[in-house]
Amino acid sequence: MLESVNVSLESLNLITLLPMLIPVVGALLILITDLFKSGQDKSLYVMLSVIFLVVDFGALLESADIFAKNGTVLGVFNVMLIDGLAILSQFIIVGASIVFIPLSLTSKRFHEFSYPEFFALFLFMIAGFQFMVATDNLILIFVGLETASLALYTLIAMHNRDKSFEAAVKYFTMGALSAAFFSLGSMVFYALTGSVEINQIATVLAGNGYADIAYVLIAVTFMLGSLGFKLSLVPFHTWAPDVYEGSSASMAGYMSIVPKIAGFIVAMRIFEFLIHSGVVWLEVILYLFVVVTMTAANMWALVQTDVKRMLAYSSISHAGFVMAAILIGTTQSNSALFLYWVLFAFTNLGSFAMLWISRQKNIPWYQTSDHSYNKFAGMIKTSPVAAIIMGLFMLSLAGVPPFALFWGKLYMISSAVNAGYTLLALIMALNSAIAGYYYLKLIVYMFMKEPVQGAEEQVFTNNSSLPLRSIIGFAAVGTVFAFILVNPLVEFITSFVYNSGY
């Protein structure tokens, strides 16, 4: 006879689920609003999205307070968790999303922003990423991954250009392969340990002394393939430049930040316990991934003739740079990962927003693509403020002091040196120097070349509006004055990472 089991709401600890439910409720409210009163101005949906994201951010602050008092907290039958990694990554996910949404308030009418479904899908996508980072259950990670990915495929296609459909199909194909690899890796881990919870998997594998190491390596290979696609690590990067080019510039900037921080957290939870357990094979493979991704992406970026594709390869290189933190696996390196990505979010979203405001419906004769280098020639004369701001973003991405990303690179490289990865630190420094060339190439075009005869003089005000100018200004100020906040930010991040046991 089966005994009834009473589950109290208090034991479920639903506060762990609250941050993910808020964007879901927001998405449903937008769909219901459109159902009963269609044809509303997009500013209503932008406002609703921002309100729900701000409330979501407030819920994360409450979760951070709970974590500070009680440490790691489990909930909803122990599949959800509040720990430092979950909270910090969700701060980045929700914070970047709050900055992104007002980019839809351009002075021109774009196809995708006329649909309330765009904003609903966007909120569903955020909830999916939050589920990914706030659990160590492989099934729930997979559910979050697919929820976010399916929404993102549609958002890319909604840009409604030929390249957008091509980009969405490529991303969908690669995403399906990534999902298959993740499922297979999870299946092997479950067969070995009888659990789909990462902490339990680590305990069981350590308990039997990694007796089934061959099967462990098979599972890890599938996981590396899956997360390699999501993080666009070489050789799994091939989709990224085409998808970035086919997406709107603002969406490309968003894709370079938010999906990747979710992937980094999952990689950190899965791979670090294996590295610390002495699985040397994994350490060697991750080392190769980091070095090849950084170096090859920089080489490809050097030869690009389109600024958007250059920034796409640049984002791949930065992902390789940050992946080094997971390889190193110390508290300092894990803290450096979050610091780097916060500073990168400021700079990269600002860079892509500059491309977004200069989007052209009809490409002039002197340009081979919408964002070719010729478009930026002599920009200091035609749009001096835009040239200076874009120059600041390029100097920051290059790691020139005292701009934002210099501090992220410095802290990451110092974490490698302190952990004994001196050669890796040298390779990271050399790659930063190589990357400086293609960032400076754009600065040379803007400041040292003459404008192309017949060029539009005010191309960088095409889509300009007060919200866009405000966001770009905010990103520029953050890029220039980041050095003021670096020390308190490092202390804040380190306390969360250390108290999570990473």
Number of domains: 1
* Strands ordered across the widest β-sheet: 1-2
Fraction of residues in β-strands: under 5%
Structural class: mainly alpha
Nearest-angstrom radius of gyration?
Answer: 22 Å
Order of helices and strands: HHHEEHHHHHHHHHHHHHHHHHH
State the helicity in percent bands.
Answer: over 70%
Question: Outline, from the CA principal axes?
Answer: globular
Average pLDDT: 85
Number of strands: 2
Alpha-carbon distance between the two ends: 45 Å
Largest sheet: 2 strands, antiparallel
Low-pLDDT residue intervals, each spanning 5 or more residues: none
Count of DSSP H/I helices: 21
Walk me through this protein's architecture.
This protein has 502 residues and is mainly α. It has one domain. Helices cover 73% and strands 1% of the residues. The protein contains 21 helices and two strands. Strands 1-2 form a two-stranded antiparallel sheet. 53% of the residues are buried. The mean pLDDT is 85.
Supply the key terms.
502 residues, two-stranded antiparallel sheet
Q: What is shown here, in short?
A:
With 502 residues, this protein is mainly alpha-helical. The chain has one domain (10-499).
What topology emerges from the helices and strands here?
Layout: H1 9-12, H2 18-36, H3 42-70, E1 73-75, E2 80-82, H4 84-100, H5 116-133, H6 138-157, H7 162-193, H8 198-207, H9 213-230, H10 239-246, H11 249-255, H12 258-276, H13 280-302, H14 307-328, H15 331-357, H16 379-382, H17 384-398, H18 404-418, H19 422-448, H20 466-480, H21 482-499
Antiparallel strand pairs: 1-2
